[in-house]
Write a structure and sequence with these properties.
Layout (H helix, E strand, L loop, with lengths): L4 H6 L11 H16 L4 H26 L9 H11 L6 H17 L4 H7 L2 H27 L1
């Protein structure tokens, strides 16, 4: 399957094929990428995240169509894109990245309102991508509150 470039990208270079917690494996791939990107100028980081998100809508939708399953567990490009987006809000400190990882995984798995509804109502790549971006938004909001409390 990884010989197909669409699946290779959608499956996070194979991390989505992890036998346990493929979404977590995809997120773990994104964290060091986000850490490296933190050195880039903000405009470049935003542009790169936008490309991953927009490309991810297409790639995830095409992969899901080829697999015949909406948001197949092996499709983790959405977790990668959401983690990169979440990292735009973080200071480059390990504690913030670790906290972001934990909160994002919590919200991505728990899917509180309206994340679950978005996942079920929107089809294709947009639906696959949007629920993870919303989980990242929830995580970013929690981290923002913490940052305001400690500053």
């Amino acid at each position: 399957m990884l010989r197909d470039p669409v699946h290779l990208l959608a499956f996070g270079l194979g991390t989505g094929l992890a036998p346990w917690a493929p979404g977590t494996a995809g997120t773990l791939l994104a964290v060091p990428l986000a850490w490296l990107m933190a050195e880039w100028p903000m405009a470049w980081r935003i542009a790169a995240v936008a490309v991953v998100i927009l490309g991810g809508v297409f790639v995830c939708g095409l992969s899901a169509k080829r697999l015949g399953v909406h948001d197949h567990p092996a499709i983790v490009l959405d977790e990668i894109a959401a983690t990169l987006a979440l990292a735009l809000t973080l200071p480059k400190q390990a504690a913030w990245f670790a906290s972001a990882f934990i909160l994002f995984r919590f919200f991505d798995i728990a899917k509180p309102w309206p994340i679950r509804e978005m996942d079920h109502r929107l089809g294709g790549g947009l639906g696959i991508m949007l629920d993870d971006l919303m989980a990242a938004l929830y995580a970013a909001a929690c981290l923002w509150i913490v940052r305001q409390a400690i500053l």
